[in-house]
Amino acid sequence: MAAGKKYTGAGMPTHYECSLHGLLAKNHEPQLRTRLEALCGDTEAAHRELHHEISCIPCIETLIGPLRREDHVLRLRIELDPEDPLCSEKSTSSICLLGHPEPRSGRGASVRPIINAQVLSGSASASQLLSLLGYKFNSEFVRKGYWFLYRSSLKVVVSQIYRLQEQGDVQSAVPVDPSGNWLVQIASEAMSQELVPRVCEQLEELKGLLEDYVELLVVDHAFLENKIPYS
User: Fold this and answer.
1) Whole-model pTM?
2) Could you tell me if 113 and 14 are in contact, meaning their C-beta atoms sit under 8 angstroms apart?
């Protein structure tokens, strides 16, 4: 692909992600974790997570008009080893394109198209690829916490968000929320459109099983729009 050409994902099969989100007070986190251990296995079912996400935007800004809607944020997602976060050989990288969510679908979950491509040769090569696709750095954050897998298909992530004081340096991360609250996200694997109704039912089931611990909500589609934050 020629340098400077924006990536659109055209020609690739469309898959969808279904999700719910919630905010958890710091003092309620132990109870939720115990509940998840009971639902998903045992104490060994929890997986530690250290997630570094970099959002990238087109180097060339599309002129104001209908075509600007075709500009998208691409996300470089780097899963780091919590025990050795500086070891690139232990990390995995992927480039993610999130489409526009369904507006007020009534499905009981946030539903949006997703394209996720793993980059086999590491985050440095992924950054080079994004540059070749015509994208540049926009913002980044780190997510620290743990996750469980429910019914082998729904990933329950309990985490806290950190900002980086030095660009690209995960060791400079500091909490965004000083009160220590946790974010809870339940997300499905990418799937074909035909499976969306069944997965939404599973999300509703899990939401009910966790309702005494955290309130899980459908995020307003306006907040999930994949718009470029042009200044």
Assistant:
1) 0.87
2) yes
